[in-house]
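Notebook B, p. 112. Complex prediction, attempt 2.
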Amino acid sequence: MGILDSKVPSGPLADKWTKHKNDIDLVNPANKRNIDIIMVGTGLAGASAAATLAELGYNVKTFCYQDSPRRAHSIAAQGGINAAKNYQGDGDSPYRLFYDTIKGGDYRSREANVYRLAEESVNIIDQCVAQGVPFAREYGGLLDNRSFGGVLVSRTFYAKGQTGQQLLLGAYAAMNRQINRGKITSYTRHEMLDVVLVDGKARGIIARDLITGEIERHAAHAVVIASGGYGNVFYLSTNAMGSNVTAAWRVHKRGAFFANPCFTQIHPTCIPVSGDHQSKLTLMSESLRNDGRIWVPAKAEDAQAIREGKLKPTKIPEADRDYFLERRYPAFGNLVPRDVASRAAKERCDAGFGVNKTGEAVYLDFAAAIQRYGSEKALTSGIKDPDQETITKLGEEVVEAKYGNLFQMYEKIVDENPYKTPMMIYPAVHYTMGGLWVDYNLQTTIPGCFCTGEANFSDHGANRLGASALMQGLADGYFVLPYTIGDYLSDDIRTGPISTESEAFDKAEAEVRANLEKLLNAKGAHPVDYYHKKLGKIMWNKCGMSRNATELKEAIEEISALRADFYENVRIPGGLNEMNTELEKAGRVADFLELGELFAKDALERNESCGGHFREEYQTPEGEALRDDKNFRYVAAWEYKGAPKDAKLHKEDLVFENVELKTRSYK
Amino acid sequence: MSGLAKTSVARKVVMALSGLFLVLFLLLHVTINLTSVISPDTFNTMSHFMGYNPLVQFLMQPILIAGVIVHFVMGIILEIQNKKARTVRYVKYAGGANAPWVSRNMILTGLVVLAFLGLHFYDFWIHEMNYKFVQANPEDPTRYYAETVEKFEPMWRTLIYVVSFVLLALHLWHGFASSFQSMGINNKYSSGIRSFTRLYAIVVPLLFIFIALYHHLNPITH
Amino acid sequence: MKLLLKIWRQKDGSSKGKLVDYPIDHIEGDMSFLEMLDVLNQELIEKGDEPVVFDHDCREGICGTCSLMINGEPHGPDRLITTCQLHMRRFNDGDTIVIEPFRATAFPVLKDLMVDRSAFDRIQQAGGYISVNTSGNTVDANAIPIDKHHADESFEAASCIGCGACVAACKNASAMLFTAAKVSQFALLPQGKVEAIDRVQNMVRQMDLEGFGNCTNTGACEVECPKGISLENIARMNREYLMATVKG
């Protein structure tokens, strides 16, 4: 085990969490009033944890770079949230959800964490309904479910295509209640730039007020990082423009190990890139794969004609279409997990069957669903012998009711009507499974520094299933962290307030200031985005959907060189003590330029294919991922040692006592 | 009124209720006026009743005056507050792109109607007070018709009346329907309510205009 | 295409601002409006000037961060979208585009096109929640069936993204639609009815304290709302408020 102690409790899987809750130390309510906690990030994980911690009695300070906690990027999650409620009576259970998640993650996550997640999933739905989250309902007034990729049951709860929004607003409301009670102080437009360690424990942060530019010190008994994922290391991703790795990375540089950085999720259904000006990619919810069929032309000449604008997809007869997911994976069809679907799309495009101008797109076609729903609707509406036009009209209405907002979004961006002509989609970076290493208590390797949500590595292994990120964020935030953090804080009841007037704070602040000044003083020729785009290209081309040793080595060299150039030649107008959006971006890109290199190093070290990590050297003859459980059944946790290339690898062996490791097959 | 007007929602309701009350009054007013076209005698009888019935004079009239005052004082308070809510104006503001002119210019149409009310008070109410209380003339149930028609002899006054009622129509076009929304009524009946209020906003001012023009064109020949 | 941008520049909250002309070329129809501003900013930085500061984040129309008054309309001329979803194909070669911040006394300008909308947060803090503990010890989610019609209406109200277009569009800078959306979301659910009286009174009080104007039912907010939130919600809030006054 080395120095990594996962602190997974002993005993049978199903009893571990209950037993752990009974065993850990608690802080009594009177003492909680004397304990301060800093929460960095106010997405689902951060907002829910902040609300519960404040409700328990702790004094919480929340920090977010956005102008309001409600704008954290959890808000953009579309499809839904999983919970093993078994309301549909289709045989679901916490165990099945646990099993699907472990298998979906390609056996690279911790059994105990995932089981706890599945166990708590049911509480989330109860909690959210009590908070007034308006989930979709059936006519009988009960909650509706839909199905997501990689599973054989319907366990996804949703609120149209805006589930993340509704859940985040629920958590934000819970936070607001505590703000109103004076238990949470919310610092918006603030960015955490360093964690402060006093006697080896996390005791505060250095943050910059993004409006005034002022550098501030904030002390607390514990610091929680809930700052989300680092998908923006690819420049183009479905993340928000401001999503960044800075909080997690600065913590990493102070001693927290960074786990599995190369585990990135490439989401199969995004709107394809249209040009160099593109600043972000837009996701089309996975729920669309419930009804849409994915295909490319079966004949290369048809694909060519489409690319040249000489042929319309609707003119291609059924026989000449290749529904490649249905062909390759008959059991799961269009609902295979994200990594599998993405790679299959890339494989077809690389083989020359891609369909838009760039050749990097496949079709997501609703024509069959429209006809099916139209006929059903005609039947239930009592229309006898409906003509084709009526069926299409009725079908389009049903599809609009289900996915209207997504279709509208698509039409706005692409300027094509997806009801009439198939959508074009292509994979894009969406989520990062890797993150700060945490133990069962969600504590990083720095005592007193915790990490939750997408920012940690814990629950999704090498691939995350759809509708599971919301589940993790809320389970950890509402039901896990608020209790496990007590185990650590029970030692702090006599500590008293932490002062910001200490050598540790002086030093951390001075370093933050020096770093910012260094960036400002470069006075070079290129804007920050120039470097970010270059980094993104390297990452996408060499560390993207498929990777090989040669390119990964090149990537390491290229990123390292780009980083050096960045510090020499970046140009940031404006000063330190004022609002300076370019300086904010520069700090974030500087961290991406380090993380990117560690990412490539991690991918190079992992000589197997698993989940979102596909190494071209390790594949079956049919082109499926070839996992190596003998040598790589571990979490790669990296210790910071100066430069990314010097990072030191620690391994946490993954022990599977309850599931049998199998080759993941969706055929 | 201060208690009622504490919050923005309450202020809306006060505007709506006083407005609705005035709308009702308009109906009464136009009905009586119409009789001046149809039957001068009926007009005289009704006018006399309105002028001398103590219930009307000492209860309804003060209520009416209060209603008018509440409506316009509140309207002006709202306007001042609304101006304060955006002290730096837009250089370019496309108000017409998302809201009809009438709804955005209630203060303008309202102030014109208010100015008209001034003239109207001067013409009739001050005259009545003068006649009844200052000069203490005896009751004369036959004088109203002639007095009214006489007022419309000058072109300028008739014109002012016509213009004012056009603006009243615009004010009602938005205000009448809007008062239901302010009181929380927005449901499946709302489109019906809107049609009715708009018909009302056109018909009632048109009748007033018709009456003014009718008397202007048909002066009493001595 | 070639455009002339007239952009509001203002150093900070205490400075005076003005419109500054920026001619720009090589804009493509596939660019989003914000990507067009990105292009401008890259040019400005390369010239050594300060970039135009504007709020933006998710760039997919859901976070509510982007704002901008474009030719006198919040989020520009299209309906049911935010500025980040507005594409340049909507404009023509040679157009002049005036870009200003959302203006309201309650939304003070921070810099250039960026405004402070924390007034919205404070309205929510005053009562935009259901007071249940987050302990997880609640009743089963299906214990109380909710009429689908009401659940859907509640969702429609809850889909507000808090961007402030309603305030920006309103000639009175009123925040009624924003406040009403939250009041409605809870008023339509059995869970929300318990503290309905306090909620509507507290939220309306805070809304007024922030210095927003009064609603005069022009309907501009509904037209400009990127999520199409209906005026019915304002009527519902008025109703709730009246009931609260009567009962409370």
